[in-house]
Amino acid sequence: MSEQNIDFLIERGKLHWEQRTSDGALQKSDHFITLATKKRPNDFALSILHSKIKFNLAKYIETEPEIKKQLFLDGAEISKNAIFNHPNFKPIFTEAIGDSSSKLISAINKAPKILVPGLFWWAENKAHYLNEKSVLERLNHRELLEVLMHRVISLDPGFNYSGPYRFFGSLYTRIPGVELTQSETYFKQAISSNSDYLGNLVSMAEYFHQKKGNREQFHKILLEVSEVDINQFPDKMNPNYFSKIYSLELLKKESLLFE
Questions:
Q1: Tens of pLDDT, residues 137-152
Q2: CA separation for the pair 143, 160 (Å, rounded)
Q3: How far apart are CA 104 and CA 232, in angstroms?
Q4: Which pTM value belongs to this model?
């Protein structure tokens, strides 16, 4: 395939990504970007876009549980491979001391800012994949997830609309033995920093208030989100659209979630 043809695939994939609130657009974006990444496997930015597409498909579009899990896992692996193949990470990992696990943790702790998107989407996809796994499996991956996202916080705490704080707010409702006040603190930080990003509010309702048994707050937040005019925030139109739709889905499940 010629470089011109690959560029065409990328162009089409990005176009559908920007139009992802339209029916079928995310699936089309995934199709084109999948083809393009096969031809340019070492294109870091392209791989991260691919990882984000997988996450959005799993989180907002797919309804079959096993397919959702596979999409999250695929998204995590895409970002992980993008990190390992990046020329700024390879020497750091090679020079790290210890077994493979120790080397990885050490290298992540020294990862440069350019790798933040890969670190974030690796952790975000992996955590969502693990949400439906056993407590033991979540505990086994806790250190990796924390190291990945602590590195993002240290380099770019506002990444993806305060995503690292939203991440820890969610994570600490899924790890036994962690005080829920930690989750609440992280969510409040995310919301105070990016109050017009509806995903921060929806995640706090979905994870913290559900875990805490705060049905009234859960309902109130999601109802308010569902009534927001997303045209107020044109730069966040696409993610806020999906957050609104997701808030309605959670409201439909409310009675089941608080049985």
A1: 999 999 999 999 999 9
A2: 22
A3: 42
A4: 0.96
| 234 exposure class (CB count in 10 Å sphere: 0-12, 13-18, 19+) | exposed
Whether residue 209 is predicted with pLDDT greater than 80 in this model: the reply is: yes
The Cα–Cα gap between 145 and 149 comes to: 6
Whole-number pLDDT of residue 3: 86
Count other C-beta atoms under 10 Å from residue 223's C-beta: 13
Q: Sorting pLDDT into bands at 50, 70 and 90, what band is 95?
A: very high
Cα 75 → chain centroid: 9
How far is residue 208's CA from residue 196's CA, in Å, rounded to a whole number?
A: 19
In a domain, 34, yes or no: yes
Tokens for 72, please give them: 């999250």
Query: What number of residues does the chain have?
Result: 259
pLDDT at residue 20 tops 80 = yes
d(CA 240, CA 21): 10
Structural domain range at position 35: 1-40
Closest Cα partner for 68 from 141, 125, 139, 138? 125
Buried b (16+ CB within 10 A) or exposed e, 30-58: bbbbbbbbeebeebbebbbbbbbbbbbbb
Query: For residue 16, is it within any domain?
Result: yes
Q: Give tens-digit pLDDT for 229-252.
A: 999 999 999 999 999 999 999 999
Q: Examine residue 94 and state whether it is found in any structural domain, yes or no.
A: no
Number of domains forming the structure of the chain = 1
Pairwise CA distance, residues 195 & 165, whole Å: 13
Which tens digit of pLDDT belongs to each residue from 164-194? 999 999 999 999 989 999 999 999 999 999 9
